[in-house]
């Protein structure tokens, strides 16, 4: 299996945590969206939305994070049950969808200095236009990407978008706080893949130095955060990059 991803990408982190937790081997390819690598024609042919992560197994390509996580879960279940596929826990599916709806993209962008954000967005628009000229057969996909880039810039001018993504996050964290009062992990007493959806969101909050405002005021969530950071998967996928991110001011 091949995974196209980047260490800074939230959705890539979710998928890599799942692969580590289930002990599944894969070949890793870095595609950095901050330098526009996701706009290269080879990648656009795999995923016309130009987004990471993308998981490829033979000719099978999956580019929806929730679907990738469910695919990983199915592979792991099939291996552990000796070939008989078992059903996925509905709790895992419910939380996976719920956490995927969380608008982390706009939330993160709002916490990045406007000067830096606008510089990167202008650079990426130039990359899209250059790639479109090189591969005219992919023009309609590149046009869609350009439109999306302008829409994101517009959304950043709208404070309502920030309020909405903040409200959504707060509601989600409140719900997590209640659930973590009932069981030690999300989805039960054992670590399930539902947890890999929430860990990168908490790491992002810590990276943005917002842990006091969002995590530490919720005691169950704060305890949970200390526990999950001890897991080898966290250290491998997120922890070891943390100092570098802070130093280079990469979000
Ligand atoms: N629908 C995709 C969204 C993935 C996504 O938004 N990926 C971000 C990184 S976390 C990305 O590739 N951003 C670069 C871009 O949109 O050009 C999924 O659910 O997997």
UniProtKB/TrEMBL annotation:
Coiled coil: none annotated. Pfam families: GST_C_2, GST_N_3. Residues 121-251 form the GST C-terminal domain. PROSITE patterns: GST_CTER, GST_NTER. One of its GO terms (molecular function) is glutathione transferase activity. Residues 1-80 form the GST N-terminal domain. InterPro entries: Glutathione-S-Trfase_C-like, Glutathione-S-Trfase_C_sf, Glutathione_S-Trfase, Glutathione_S-Trfase_N, TCHQD, Thioredoxin-like_sf. PANTHER family: GLUTATHIONE S-TRANSFERASE TCHQD. This is Glutathione S-transferase TCHQD. It comes from Capsicum annuum.
